[in-house]
Amino acid sequence: MVWTRWALLAACSERTATTPDGGTPSTDVPATEHTGLPSGDTGATSVGHTGASTTDTAEGFDCSQVPSAPVAFRKLAWAPTAEDYTISADADMITVTGGLLKRTPFGGPSVNVAPGFGDVRGTRFLPDGRLALAHPEDGSVWVADLSTGGHTVAAGNLTTPNGIAIHPDGLIYVATAGRIVRIDPDTHVTETVADMPRNSFDGLTFSPDYTRLYFNEELGQVNWVDLAPDGTPSAPQGPLRIPVTPLAGFGILDGMAMDACGNLYVNEMNGKVWRVRPNGTMEVLADITGLAIIPALNFGLPDRDGWHLDKLYVLDFTGALWEVDAGVPGKWEPHMPR
Questions:
Q1: Burial group, residue 21, by CB count within 10 angstroms (0-12, 13-18, 19+)
Q2: 51-55, 148-152, 169-173: lowest mean pLDDT where?
Q3: Alpha carbon of 326 to those of 56, 183, 243, 265: distances in Å?
Q4: What is the pLDDT at residue 16?
Q5: What is the pTM of this model?
Q6: Binning pLDDT at 50, 70 and 90, where does residue 40 land?
Q7: Distance between CA 179 and CA 173 in Å, rounded?
Q8: What are phi and psi of 269, to 5 degrees?
Q9: Collapsed DSSP state (helix, strand, coil) of residue 210
Q10: Per-residue pLDDT tens digits for 107-119
């Protein structure tokens, strides 16, 4: 699965983004809203508990007021090329590009922090400000100090570690080939959370109350496990099936995010951003098909330094961000202040 995906990326990475009429999309003006759901049955399977009500308020937002899809989006051309990114508490975009650990303030330019990081996939902050990085070259997860660029190995002997999610207790959850594992970055103890052979997992995200972990299988399935108060995971549940384009059409699930109201966001690398509501209804929030290759997405910060908490920032593998007007705040992340 992984080799196929990266072969497709190599084949597509030289494309020039164009608008449907053949022009170049603006880097400043929101694109025209696109059509909603694709033709065909997208299903409405209940995903059950999401940790937030659709009618109560969450993070000061009335969850009954989540805007309808599709929504507007615009291209921000200043972001570096990367497989994944995260946003620091001090409002910098953090990536690894060409082996270089980089900081990029909103609007750029990038500043190199340290070399020698190689091929990095998942990138997320721990509650204490250290950076967890999935490193598939040697099957390890690194923990880096962003102030110095130094790093330690939190765990090794993993098979193609990819997406990362962080629990408020400081444990690192990592998608690998056929397994979801969690790692204590200090004791280096590694546990299996979900063992599902012959699956290629990628994106992960927690529910707003951090009692459920969602993870996607690249060819269209989303699974989840619930966590007991002592951290014991349930048996894997799902799958929730997102109707991706067949592989020949370059439809592969990748990054995931969650808003404060329990809506799940999944990006399809060929350009669709899907929203799954708490009742399981799926809709295309933004369709950037033909304009970008999108491996990752995150919510921004609360109206700080150019970022907005109610917007999704979708990474373009060819070197840009797409700012999508989600209209609902992202969930709290463990490295952010309350």
A1: exposed
A2: 51-55
A3: 18, 32, 21, 10
A4: 34
A5: 0.86
A6: very low
A7: 10
A8: -60, -25
A9: coil
A10: 999 999 999 999 9
Q: Is 285 left (phi over 0), alpha (psi -120 to 50) or beta?
A: alpha
Place of tokens 């998942």: 122
Sequence letter at residue 19 = T
Strand stretches in 234-306, DSSP E = 237-241, 253-258, 264-268, 272-276, 282-287, 296-299
Helices (H), the chain: 2-12
Sheet holding 320-324, edge to edge: 73-76, 320-324, 312-316, 296-299
End-to-end CA distance of the chain: 39
Given a contact cutoff of 8 angstroms between Cβ atoms, the answer to whether 258 and 331 are in contact is yes
Kindly state the tokens that stand for 32.
Answer: 């025209």
Preceding peptide of 278 cis, ω within 30°: no
Q: Counting Cβ atoms within 10 Å, is residue 213 exposed (0-12), middle (13-18) or buried (19+)?
A: buried
Cβ proximity of 322 and 74 under 8 Å: yes
- What gap in Å lies between CA 333 and CA 46, rounded to an integer? 25
CB 161 within 8 A of CB 174: yes
For residue 33, the SS3 value is coil
Token pair in block for residue 183: 């790692």
* φ, ψ at 6 (rounded to 5°): -75, -30
pLDDT digits (tens, 9 = 90+) for 22-33: 333 333 333 333
Amino acid at 253: L
- Given a contact cutoff of 8 angstroms between Cβ atoms, the answer to whether 220 and 242 are in contact is yes
What gap in Å lies between CA 268 and CA 247, rounded to an integer? 11
Structure tokens at 101: 């650990």
In the block, tokens 């940790």 appear at 51
Q: What are phi and psi of 63, to 5 degrees?
A: -70, -10
